[in-house]
Amino acid sequence: MVLIFFLRFNGVAGGALQYNFYEESCPQLEDIVSTGLHPIFLSDPTSAPALLRLLFHDCQGCDASILVDTVKANRLSEMTSAKNFGIRKRDLIGNLKTLVEDECPVQVSCADILVLAAREAVASSWGPLIKVPLGRRDSSAAPSYQLADSLLPPATTGVDEMLRIFTGKGMTVEESVAIMGSHTLGSTHCLNILNRLYKPEGVEAQGIVLMDPRFEAFLRLTCPKWSLISNITSVLNDVTPTVFDNHYYMKAMGGRGVLTIDAEMVIDPRTAQIVEHFATNQDDFFHAFSTAFLKLSSSGVLTGDQGVIRRKCNVID
Predict the structure, then answer these.
(1) Domain boundaries of the chain, sorted by first residue
(2) Three-class SS of residue 17?
(3) What is the pTM of this model?
(4) Which reaction does this chain catalyze (predicted)?
């Protein structure tokens, strides 16, 4: 399924993202990215969810700042933030950049390559193929783990915070619920759900967040309290972790949501009917996800004369 939305996305510097941005400077760009990723997705299906998550963690500005390595002790990269725990496959964007540079030197930003890679991650997993506007520029400022700490939501995020974040990027409530459907791919580290499974003594759970008792027992077995393996052990987000589908919502409806937000959306009056609808109508989920993806990947971007085109994604020239 190809979903095309001809919208104009303004950047922060008087420029705008365009669907034909590289039509003259690098017309083969999308083919290079798709061809470069195809064998990787075949050999390592976990690459797709990793690239999609990478986009989420970069899109406080979608400027490829998450790809920059630490170069000085007082300039720690975003990857040193605890909220970027488990982020993988940054090197794939660098590899794609090398392929693009061979064909179109100093024309294409790492930020655009990252968005295209995330788009391919969804499409290659049997999700919608989303036509995305391009023209992002890369950040030229030193990376900041403090910024990542302050802007990225914690694993304990609930519906209130989720809606605040995504409606702040121009999404509707329906689109906000749809973008959470990214969790249909991949797995969740035990570290991110220990707080949900094990409350400190004397602390009662706040609110009513339903969980199937059998599923809770399974999670406790997989993620034992205080176990060192919680840092490396993970649980699948749904029963089809390599397929982009609506099973995430089905699982949440059955009380088997892994994260707090997965469970809260089922009972919150603002989101419950949307979750139920997506659980029974995959086409509507795909449509809402596609528009949400466009808004997420186009929010607060650098365009025009702002930012730079990095020659290497992990280094600020």
Answers:
(1) 12-152, 159-292
(2) strand
(3) 0.89
(4) 2 a phenolic donor + H2O2 = 2 a phenolic radical donor + 2 H2O
User: In angstroms, rounded to a whole number, what is the distance separating the alpha carbons of residues 70 and 315?
Assistant: 9
d(CA 239, CA 256): 11
| Residue 260: Cβ-neighbour burial (10 angstroms; 0-12, 13-18, 19+) | buried
User: Residue 153, annotated ligand binder?
Assistant: yes
**Is 61 annotated to bind ligand?**
yes
Task: Report which of 258, 267, 155 is spatially closest to residue 216, judged by C-alpha positions.
Answer: 258
Query: Residue 6: pLDDT band by 50, 70, 90 thresholds?
Result: very low
Task: Report how far residue 253's alpha carbon sits from residue 265's, in angstroms, rounded to the nearest whole number.
Answer: 9
Structure tokens at 295: 């808004």
In this predicted structure, the answer to whether residue 148 has a pLDDT above a threshold of 70 is no
> In the CATH scheme, what is the code of domain 159-292?
1.10.420.10
Any bridge partners for residue 188, and if so which? 235
- Gap between the Cα atoms of 226 and 128, Å rounded: 40
Name the H helices within the chain: 29-43, 47-58, 90-103, 110-124, 145-151, 159-167, 173-179, 194-197, 213-222, 247-253, 260-267, 272-280, 282-297
Average pLDDT over residues 195-221: 72
Question: Domain 12-152 maps to which CATH number in 3.30.870.10, 1.20.1050.10, 3.90.550.10, 1.10.520.10?
Answer: 1.10.520.10
Is 245 known to sit in a ligand binding site? yes
Q: State yes or no: 69 annotated in a binding site.
A: no
Are the beta carbons of 263 and 138 closer than 8 angstroms?
Answer: no
Report the range of poorest mean pLDDT among 102-106, 175-179, 199-203, 313-317: 199-203
The answer to whether 63 is a known ligand-binding residue is: yes
Helix 90-103 × helix 47-58 angle, to 10°: 90
More confident residue, 81 or 143: 81
Is 184 flagged in the annotation as binding?
yes
- H/E element holding 188? strand 187-189
Q: Which residues are catalytic?
A: 57
Query: What is the average per-residue pLDDT within 124-146?
Result: 89
Residue 149 annotated in ligand binding: no
